[in-house]
């Protein structure tokens, strides 16, 4: 192999197949980021690979002004600390490495802890406050981004907020939010950007698309399933669209038990008509193959476990994100696990430190940027 005579180090000219082989042997996402930081060619190889989410958790040393990252592949807390305050502040969104927070003035801030950049968004004028919860941060259920704000000035932000899980959206640079009118009883649970359109799902599986230019809704599937405690939309890398429905263990709904615990998930594959966009087929599936889904307060993520042999296939990795029923108290955010679709078993992926109980905000999945 001929080596360039430039001053760049020899390792920058390693062949692509060798770089890919090295990448596939890296179990930790942190190691992948370090790999990509070596030089430009290694960074290009890393960005072309699959990213695996990490959990944003309390730091190893209980530093109140920082949080750490937990790797599900090697089951360790990284020595990397991020400048994300831990003082009970809940993240209400995670997209493209950006975290979302609600301020005491009812505004939403986007923060990228890897680039240490912050974007201040306008105040939510119609926010209804829950005095029974820990401040205004619990009035926004989820914030989702259409793209990386650092790379796209036309990034769209959609939030689910308030007592009736209303929808609101804005483009970066807008002076105010646009509120989406919808009928009472349609409690939205998740938002997904799918093939150029904004999709939203409610707790009884009504699926809508939203035209942000006209603020018009189009119903793609009616409310025809029983109420689920949480619903999620997930798109796979090959373009398949899935509806996830999360149900509590019935025994945990007892008044004698202080916190509700997930019992199982159901998964439906959705097929949309190419012209109308409406759902023409919805089939419950028991097998998603080598894929694994990551859901919670984050933008839902799908990965192929063939790229990460230590990640459990045909499974749903979930975090504690149900803030409306006895949330997090007194035992902290403990409803986290891995649901296996084949045998319907649940096992832990991360066990919180008992000392973090009462004041612990729920961990959230975050994708590390390949810089």
Instruction: Report the biggest beta sheet as strand number plus sense, adding barrel if it closes.
Output: 5 strands, mixed
What value does the average pLDDT take? 82
Written as H for each helix and E for each strand, in order along the chain, the element string is HHHEEEEEEEEEEEEEEEEEEEEEEEEE
Task: Give me the count of strands.
Answer: 25
Please give a structural write-up:
This protein is mainly β and 371 residues long. The chain has two domains: 6-49; 50-366, Neuraminidase, CATH 2.120.10. The chain has helices spanning 16-24, 29-36, 40-48; strands at 54-58, 67-71, 76-82, 93-95, 98-102, 107-112, 117-123, 140-145, 156-161, 166-171, 178-180, 188-194, 197-202, 207-211, 216-221, 230-235, 241-248, 262-272, 279-285, 291-295, 301-304, 315-318, 337-340, 346-347, 364-366. Strand 10 and strand 11 (178-180) form a beta hairpin. The longest helix has 9 residues, at 16-24. Residues 1-8 and 129-134 have low confidence and may be disordered.
Question: Summarize this, please?
Answer:
The protein has helices at residues 16-24, 29-36, 40-48, and strands at residues 54-58, 67-71, 76-82, 93-95, 98-102, 107-112, 117-123, 140-145, 156-161, 166-171, 178-180, 188-194, 197-202, 207-211, 216-221, 230-235, 241-248, 262-272, 279-285, 291-295, 301-304, 315-318, 337-340, 346-347, 364-366. By secondary structure, it is mainly beta. The chain folds into 2 domains: 6-49; 50-366, Neuraminidase (6 Propeller).
